[in-house]
Each structure stands twice: as C-alpha cells, then as structure tokens.
Structure to design on (966 residues):
C-alpha cells in the first residue's frame, strides 16, 4: 500500500507529538529529581545532585528495593512454571472446557486490581490467619502467570505441531522432545514473558496494598507512602528516574531475544 | 539408541489424558482454588451484612447491598461516571495509538523498529505511581507545568477533576494499546496489501477494507486493557481527581467499614468485564492479549 | 525407563516446592492477630477481650509491630532530629515496625487483618476494636507511667468498659481551622467560610475524608441551627443526621480536595491548591517548616477533637515488647516529644516540665478543663444515643460510613 508523501510526513509529525506526550512527564520527573525545591513547583528554582546521593543511602529505599526484587523473582518463577504448563496443555490438546480455561486464565489480569486485592485479602485474613510475604507472592504469581501464558501460547501456536512430530518420527520420547526441541524454541518466549511478569510484579501497587503482610514494604508501597512527604518526595523522584534508566537493560535483553525469535520462528 | 524406541513408548505416551492432567493439575489448582475460590468467597460476602456496632460481618443472607447500590443516585452516578471515563480513555488511547503504531509498523524504516518499540516500552517501567504524581505536578492549577504554559496565554489548565483523570489514565495505558496494534500491523502480510492494490483500491480503501478488519482483534485486545484498567482504578482519582471519585474509590472506602457492600460494588466491574470478554472472544482478540 | 522419568518429575516438583518455601521463609513474621469472628448483637456483653496479661513484663521478643497515626512514632526518617524510637529500640531490643494510617477506619481494618501488636486508636475506633474482640484489657500495674496520666483522660467512655481500662491515653488535641495566608488575607475564627454556600473560597476548601467528619458538620449546626437540639455531635437522631448530611452536600460544592493523607494536605495547603479547611496542628507545623504561609486556630463554634488510646491487640505474640512500648510512649520524655512534634496536649502530667517550649502545655491547654468543653473527642456513634436520650434512636457508625461513601461517590 503506497502512501502519499504528505501522508507520511503527517504521520511522522503525529508520531513525534505522541512521543513528546509520552516523554514530557518522564522528563519532568527527571528534572525534578535534580530540583532544589521539595514541592512540585515549576519551574525549579535551582538544581542539585543532593537527592541522588541521599537516595543511594536511604535505608527505606534499599529495603523496599530488596523486597520488591525478591517478590518479583519468586512470583515470576512460579508464574513461568504454571504459565508454561497451561500453555502446553491449551495448545497441544483438545479437551472439554478448553475454551473456558482460556477465558479463566485471562481473568487475573482483566479484572480490576482492587477486586483481586480485596478477594485475596478476604480469604487470607479469614481463612489463613493473616498476611505475610507468601500471600503477597501468591497474589503476584496469579496475575504474572497470565503474561507468561500469553507469550508462550503465541509461540507454541506459531511453531505448529510439525516440529514435534518430526522429532517423534526420529524416535524421541515425549520428554526428550520437550527437552531438546520444544523448549529451546520456546526459550525466548519464556524470557519475554518472564521479563514482562517481572516488570508487572515490580510495579504493582493495588493488589500489593491488600495482600502484603505488616512491615512488608515493596518499592511501590514505599513510593506511595512517601509520595507527598516533603522530605522524601525528591527521593521518590530520584527512585523513579533511576527505575526508568535502569529499565533499559531488561528492554534491551527482551529486544535481543525478540530478534532471535524471528529466525527461529521460521522453522515452520 | 534406536533399539529401545519401542519400549520408550511408555506409560505417558499411551495415556495422553494423564499427560494433560499432569500438565493441568498445578495451574488449575492454583487458579481455581486460590483465585476463583477467593472471588467466589467475595461475591458470597456481597449477600451478607454487617453488625451495626462491632462492624463484623454477619452471615445472614440479604439483598440490601445490591438494592442500596442500584437505588442510591450517588452510586449509580458513580457507575456511569466510571464507565464513561473508561470508554473515553479507550477511545483517546485508540486515537493516539493507531496512527503512531501505523507509523512504527508501516512508514518508518525497518531498522528503526527495535528502537521505537523500546521507546514505547520504557514508560511502562517507570512506576505507575510516579507517572500519576508527575501528572499531579503538571496539572496543578497554579504552579504546575501546564499552568506555567497556558496561563500566559490566558487559558486555564484542566486542573484536578474528571478531565485530569481522563488525561492521566490515557497517558498511563497508552503503551497497552500501542503494542498489540503494532504487533498486529507488523504481522499483516504485505501480499494482502499488494493484492488489494492490484484489485484497484487506493490507500484509503485498502486501509478501510483490508487493514482495519485484520487488526480489529488487536484493537480489541488493547481495549480490554485500557477499559478494565480504567474501570477499577482508584489511585489516579485520589491523586489527580480532586473530589471526583470512581467506582474503585467507592470500593476502597467502603471496604473498611462495610465489606459486604464493597463486595457488592465490586461485582459490577467484574460483571461488565466478563461480559465484555465473552463478547470479544469470538473476535480472536484474546489470542492477542 | 519409567522410573527415571517418574523420579525426574518428582525431583522437579520437589524443587518447585522448595522454591516456594524459600521464597516464603525469608521474612514476614506472620503473627496471627485476631481475625475477628462475627459477633452478633449490639448489646454490650460482659467485659470483652478476655483476660488482661497478668505479667510480669519479661524479656522483649525482639520486635513490636505498631500501627499509629502519622507523627506518633517518629524514628528520625521524617526529620533526623525527631526521634523517640531509636533509644527505645536500643534499650529494650524491641525493633519497632511502624505503619501509619490516615483514618480510624483504616486502623480498624488493619488491626482486624492481624499481625499487629499495638495500635494508637482514636475514640471512633476504640469501641469497635473492644467489642470486636480485637484488643485486650490493660493491666495498669504493668505500666508504671500510667499513674502520672491526667485523671480526666483515664477511664473514659471510649477507652474503658465497666471500669476496666483498655489502653493507655496518649494525649488530646482539637481539629483546627487552617488557612493559607496568601489566599486568605483576613484571619478567620469561624467555620463559616468552609460551610456556607457564599464562601469566597469555593473550590479551594478541604475537609477530612472520613465518616467521622459528619460530626464536624454537626458541631457547626450546634451553633448555626440550635433549634435542631444537637448536644453531642456523635448522638444524632434521624432529623439531626439528615441536616448534617445536607450541610455536607452543600460543602461539597466548595471542596477542592478531601484529605486523609496528612502529607497530601501539607502539599495542598503550601501550594495554594487548598486555601482553607480542617486540619491538624502537626500539619500546620510541618507546612510552616516547609516555608508555607499557614495559620491555624480552633474555631469559635467549637471543634471535634481526639483523645487517643494506645491499645494492645488480643493474642499478640510480642506481649512483652508491647507493654514496654506502651510504657515508653507515655513516659514523660517521650510523651513530651510527641506532644510537641504533633501539636497536642500531652497525657502525662510530668511531660509539661520537659517540653522544649516551656509554654507548650499552656498553649495546648493541657491542664485546662474549660478549653476542652467545646472540643468533642471522636467517639463511636451507636443506636443507643451516647448523650443518654432514650426517646429516640441515634444513627450508628455503620450508617455514618454508608452516608459518607454516598456523599463521596
């Protein structure tokens, strides 16, 4: 489909504006993290790197960061296992209730966080005695599972069954096929899903508020508590800016794996 | 070792049902017991009430919560307001995402793609809370960024309130709309577009009759996110909404004093979203989520 | 072979379970607090909460989980000079894990969720916690500093049952009328500009986001509509309650933002987004420290206030640390420090000599009974009218909650 030059220029301009819309607020966060003011006044009256120094040694931030990473890693690990199992089942088998399950599995992400949050909170406090780190991980794994499932399912569908059939024809048993053929082809989808799941869990606030035990502070909870505190607000800006900068790494990794997959997917 | 192939057709090969069962047990146990079970427990609670004095849940069946919800004007106004916000946000996201995704997938040079995708993905990693907070800074009536920009021109910024919520939510969920549409557009085979041109259609016609139907599932997939995320949000309303509240705020406020009522209110977004999911299942959007 | 495959599956599932166990075992002590089984009936039973801890207070358990109003448990993170927690931690070995809440409703829900040892509860939370079987009676003999607490704070209707104390009083304060002096040029002395329809500050008024704020409307009605006959803002019959709600609907037109997070209120006042409204002294203090142009007074119509109580949750595993904390926070030094930081009258009579500002107790009227006559401490409305009327039924707190959420929707 050929577009006129004018249309292309217009689209380019629009893309530029959209890009500005997306990045201006992030830019403001970055600028504010260097601002002398503790409140949100604009433009900043002066600049300083003081907050970056304070953020690095702030014990609250470090503890929250560690907790967030632990929770996200555990939730992602569980999500990968469970998401993989379900994706294999849904894509490779036909069975009664398959449609319902594929609807069911999307629910933890599709339903509002507050519903999931109070539902799980209700069950945890009434029947399991209380909220702990485990309840938090369980809650996170539940919606992280969906993301892994989606990625792996898409890949399994694109792969088709022919590769596995070829492997069986050559004499490999089920587990060997999985280990040597299916799994390597799925690896990048698992990594992509895992990264997304990690990011989702790392940034989650609503369900976390309802399912984290006392004294457990993840990074989003720490941010929520300090968002308006005059002494801590600039540090919040620093944490946010740092998160965006650091996130370049996982995005780069995801992109690299994504490129590999274009080649592998051409197996069909 | 080819000689033992015959014996390797073992237990699991002969029992595909059991293989399936083995695959499904753990995740299904998790989903059904943990998730569905807790949802069911919550909705059961919607039919209970609370003891007036101690505030504890009393397990006697009543429809009082639902009748209050549907007969009090404040609440059903809140429902309509929340749905309107969710719809508006979805439409705005679509309006912005479609041309942008089209540019990324079809107009921009191919080697730009990884960079552009990374640029779209990066904001997702900035904390949700901080992004909302950034908008609070921007929307501040007197000293915010928008005010700094618009006041010299004699205009007023939207300030905190309904519009502030819509703008902020659109900003937050934009990547969720861009990515599925972009993915859908890249998967569009060039051959289809060539065929359409061969049959004599100019670009506009091709776009309308070929591209749009093909990316429709992606659009719906994106809309699932923007709609449902907006429907249940309450934190954005707290930070940039001024005194305007959404359904999520009602749940969050009443959940403390009156869990059964909060559960009743919470059923509404769930019903709406489940109905929406069932409706779009046919369109294949769920594959693209 | 079949067995190797089965073994492999077993190994995988075992390691999966180990992973889950590893993830869970690292931290998060789950002390199962009282989950609050359903108790029927509004009739007050015999002294609830079970038996008080007999004592003696022994070695600390290593930590104490505290739920507190912001500003009550400062450990140096808000302001490095403001810290009455680190000393306690060093001395007793009880690490203090504190979580703040914005409203009494949040506090009640948190306590009922379990895992907490001590809570600083206001009168609109205390009775719910007591009758919900979430807190235990206090053994005053184990709290040496209890003896020095002002007598008119002890054994009040909201912190005791049948003469049994359920906690240690913390201090008291009034909800203030606060304004940004850049926006409001003439000093105020009345709630009128926050309630009357012709207020010049429309869109810039703030109010406290909790059902208990209905009592503030009732206090204003006591002065402006005396024919309603309201004597106690927590004892409202249907007519009085409806009038209060009508006043709040009117006020809603004036409100820019409601606040429950005190830091959000600080920011709103300082930036001028909010010009005038209900506030706490600690908010005024912090706002001024940030350079805000703020004034705050007790309005002439009177105000709601609070007198908080430190309560110990039922079945807490950290009972020794809990008693140590409660005794520490009401000790003369700590109580003086909190009272000055938060801006309230201390509970311990001996604190008055220890405040940095020698006039603190005078400013906050710590010993003056008349000052407190038009301050109505937060209390829990019940069907049986708290002011003693038997000819009508009063609106219970649960309906306050419902009405407030309808107002805010």
């Amino acid at each position: 489909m050929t577009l006129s030059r004018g249309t292309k220029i217009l689209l380019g301009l629009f893309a530029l504006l959209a890009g500005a819309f997306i990045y201006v607020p992030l830019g403001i966060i970055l600028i504010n993290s260097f601002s002398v003011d503790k409140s949100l006044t604009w433009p900043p009256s002066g600049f300083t790197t003081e907050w970056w120094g304070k953020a690095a040694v702030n014990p609250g931030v470090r503890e929250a960061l560690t907790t967030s990473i632990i929770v996200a890693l555990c939730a992602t690990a569980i999500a990968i296992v469970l998401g993989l199992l379900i994706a294999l089942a849904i894509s490779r088998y036909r069975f009664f209730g398959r449609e319902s399950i594929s609807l069911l599995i999307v629910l933890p992400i599709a339903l509002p966080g507050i519903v999931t949050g109070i539902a799980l909170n209700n069950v945890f406090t009434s029947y399991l005695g209380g909220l702990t780190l485990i309840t938090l991980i369980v809650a996170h794994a539940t919606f992280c599972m969906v993301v892994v499932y989606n990625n792996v399912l898409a890949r399994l569908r694109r792969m088709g069954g022919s590769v596995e059939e070829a492997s069986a024809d050559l004499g490999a048993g089920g587990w060997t096929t999985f280990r040597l053929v299916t799994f390597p082809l799925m690896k990048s989808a698992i990594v992509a899903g895992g990264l997304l799941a990690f990011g989702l869990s790392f940034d989650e606030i609503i369900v976390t508020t309802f399912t984290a035990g006392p004294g457990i502070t993840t990074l989003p909870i720490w941010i929520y508590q300090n968002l308006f505190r005059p002494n801590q607000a600039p540090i919040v800006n620093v944490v946010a800016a740092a998160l965006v900068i650091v996130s370049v790494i996982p995005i780069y990794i995801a992109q690299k794996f994504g490129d590999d997959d274009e080649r592998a997917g051409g197996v069909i | 070792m080819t000689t033992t192939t015959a014996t390797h057709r073992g237990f699991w090969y002969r029992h595909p049902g059991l293989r399936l069962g083995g695959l499904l047990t753990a995740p299904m146990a998790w989903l059904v017991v943990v998730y569905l079970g807790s949802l069911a427990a919550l909705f059961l609670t919607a039919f209970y009430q609370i003891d007036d004095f101690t505030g504890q849940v009393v397990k006697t069946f009543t429809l009082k919560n639902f009748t209050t919800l549907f007969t009090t004007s404040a609440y059903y106004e809140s429902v309509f307001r929340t749905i309107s916000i969710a719809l508006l946000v979805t439409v705005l996201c679509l309006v912005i995402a479609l041309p942008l995704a089209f540019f990324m997938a079809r107009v921009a040079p191919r080697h730009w793609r990884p960079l552009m995708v990374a640029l779209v993905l990066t904001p997702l990693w900035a904390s949700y809370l901080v992004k909302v907070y950034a908008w609070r800074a921007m929307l501040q009536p007197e000293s915010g960024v928008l005010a700094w920009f618009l006041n010299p021109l004699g205009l007023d910024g939207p300030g905190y309130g309904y519009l502030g919520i819509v703008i902020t939510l659109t900003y937050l969920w934009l990547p969720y709309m861009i990515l599925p549409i972009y993915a859908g557009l890249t998967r569009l085979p060039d051959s289809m577009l060539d065929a359409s041109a061969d049959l004599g259609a100019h670009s506009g016609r091709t776009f309308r009759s070929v591209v749009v139907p093909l990316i429709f599932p992606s659009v719906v997939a994106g809309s699932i996110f923007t709609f449902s995320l907006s429907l249940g949000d309450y934190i954005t309303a707290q930070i940039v909404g001024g005194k305007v509240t959404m359904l999520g705020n009602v749940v969050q406020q009443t959940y403390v004093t009156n869990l059964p009522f909060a559960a009743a209110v919470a059923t509404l977004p769930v019903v709406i979203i489940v109905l929406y999911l069932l409706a779009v299942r046919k369109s294949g959007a769920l594959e693209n989520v | 072979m079949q067995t190797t495959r089965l073994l492999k599956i077993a190994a995988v599932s075992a390691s999966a379970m180990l992973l889950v166990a590893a993830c869970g075992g690292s931290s998060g002590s789950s002390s199962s607090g009282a989950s609050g089984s359903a108790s029927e009936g509004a009739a007050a039973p015999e002294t609830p909460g079970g038996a008080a801890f007999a004592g003696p207070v022994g070695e600390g358990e290593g930590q104490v989980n505290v739920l507190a109003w912001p500003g009550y448990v400062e450990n140096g993170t808000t302001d490095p000079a403001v810290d009455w927690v680190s000393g306690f931690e060093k001395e007793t070995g009880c690490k203090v894990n504190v979580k703040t809440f914005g409203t009494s409703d949040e506090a009640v829900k948190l306590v009922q969720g379990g895992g907490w040892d001590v809570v600083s509860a206001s009168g609109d939370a205390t009775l719910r916690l007591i009758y919900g079987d979430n807190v235990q009676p206090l053994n005053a003999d184990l709290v040496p500093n209890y003896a020095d607490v002002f007598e008119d704070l002890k054994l009040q209707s909201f912190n005791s049952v049948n003469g049994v104390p359920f906690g240690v009083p913390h201090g008291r304060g009034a909800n203030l009328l606060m304004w940004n002096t850049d926006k409001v040029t003439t000093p105020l002395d009345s709630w009128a500009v926050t309630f009357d329809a012709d207020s010049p500050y429309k869109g810039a008024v703030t109010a406290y986001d909790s059902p208990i704020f209905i009592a503030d409307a009732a206090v204003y009605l006591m002065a402006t509509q005396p024919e309603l006959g309201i004597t106690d803002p927590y004892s409202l019959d249907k007519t009085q309650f409806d009038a209060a709600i009508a006043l709040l609907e009117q006020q809603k037109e004036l409100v820019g933002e409601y606040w429950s997070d005190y830091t959000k209120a600080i920011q709103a006042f300082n930036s001028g987004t909010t010009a005038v409204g209900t506030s706490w002294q600690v908010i005024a203090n912090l706002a001024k420290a940030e350079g805000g142009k703020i004034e705050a007074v007790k309005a002439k119509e009177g105000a709601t206030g609070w007198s908080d109580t430190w309560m110990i949750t039922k079945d807490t595993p950290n009972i020794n640390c809990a008693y140590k904390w409660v005794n520490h926070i009401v000790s003369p030094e700590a109580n003086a420090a909190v009272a000055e930081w938060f801006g309230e009258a201390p509970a311990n009579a001996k604190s008055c000599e220890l405040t940095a500002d020698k006039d603190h107790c005078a400013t906050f009227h710590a010993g003056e009974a008349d000052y407190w006559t038009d301050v109505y401490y937060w209390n829990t409305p019940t069907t049986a009218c708290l002011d003693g009327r038997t000819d009508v039924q009063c609106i219970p707190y649960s309906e306050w909650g419902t009405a407030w959420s309808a107002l805010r929707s």
Notes: The two ends of chain C are 65 Å apart (CA to CA). The CA atoms of residues 384 and 390 of chain C lie 7 Å apart. The longest strand of chain C covers residues 303-313. The first helix of chain C runs from residue 2 to 25.
